[in-house]
Amino acid sequence: MKVIAPMSVTDSEVTSTNIAATVHPVWDAGTTYAANDQVYMTGLSGKAYRTVFESQLGSNLGNDPSADDGTNWIEIGATDRFKPFDRKIADTVSKATSITYQITPSSLVTGIAFFGLDAESVRVQIYDAGLTEVFDETHDLVDDTEIVDWFEYFTWDGIYDSEALFTGVPGYSGHRIDITISAPTGTASVGQIVLGRVHNLGTTLDGTGIGSEDFSTKERDTFGNAILIEKPFADTVDFQFSFPTRDARRIKRVLDGIRATPSVYFANDDMTEFGTTVFGFFQNYSVPLGHGGTSFATLEIEGLV
After folding, report:
1. From what superkingdom does this record's organism come (predicted)?
2. Whole-number Å distance between alpha carbons of 75 and 68
3. Cα–Cα distances in Å, from 75 out to 52, 69, 145, 192, 193?
4. Is 195 domain-assigned?
5. What CATH number should be reported for the domain holding residue 240?
6. What is the pTM of this model?
7. Cα 269 from chain centroid (whole Å)
8. Domain assignment of residue 48, given as a range
9. Span 191-219, pLDDT tens digits
10. In sequence order, which residues have a C-beta less than 8 Å from that of residue 300 and are 6 or more positions away?
11. Could you give phi then psi for residue 250, rounded to 5 degrees?
């Protein structure tokens, strides 16, 4: 079992992209805003990206959007360019044929994960400080696991993975990471791009389970007819894993460091087909210590929407 502890991606890390910067003025306490005017703010707690707010009334003067309760301003989210880094998988960014990002990380990156993909392939290239290519890997997103016979082969409608995971990435601080999300004959989309350092927590065991938490509402009217309102759902994974007892302090240190940070949890580099890769958080954890040198633990992860 492993986890990617993510880095924050800011204006300074994104050195190039083909996603146009959304034009919004920065909020100014001395400016009067009309209803539906949009502004952005930076430096908000827990948000490394530009956050957009929309005015809810006319003659909006001196009301700080970041401290508002929704009366004067509502938060719209990140600008298009930074949607892949705003921790909202469902809020995607799209562009015809391809999406490209060039990122110069300010910290070590050994893993990159993608969620909410709608594309044919994802390519990651890394260049060192001298612009020598040191990594080049492409993941084909075609999912052909349903093709089990000739009938399925000829009737297959084309299914693509919505996730991609790259590990063993030599993304040292100051290196250049080039990302290309391709859909040559259509529109490429991505919900989240997560970059960070991979930490090994232990060995994934039998009994690890996947599921989902559905936020749709299901009610019945006075005649018993079902009223279903579809809403988003979150992936969940209950990890069962083992680890050398002597690693308990290190594991606790890793988990404590990301306790309030959505991170990427996965079973192993070669086990992505099991559906255990999830971008989310844990509520609490307990790491029991074993007498024989090996300990066994459970970690429940709830994914982001």
Report:
1. Bacteria
2. 9
3. 6, 10, 40, 19, 21
4. no
5. 2.40.30
6. 0.88
7. 17
8. 23-78
9. 999 999 999 999 999 999 999 988 898 89
10. 236, 237, 238, 239, 282, 283
11. -65, -45
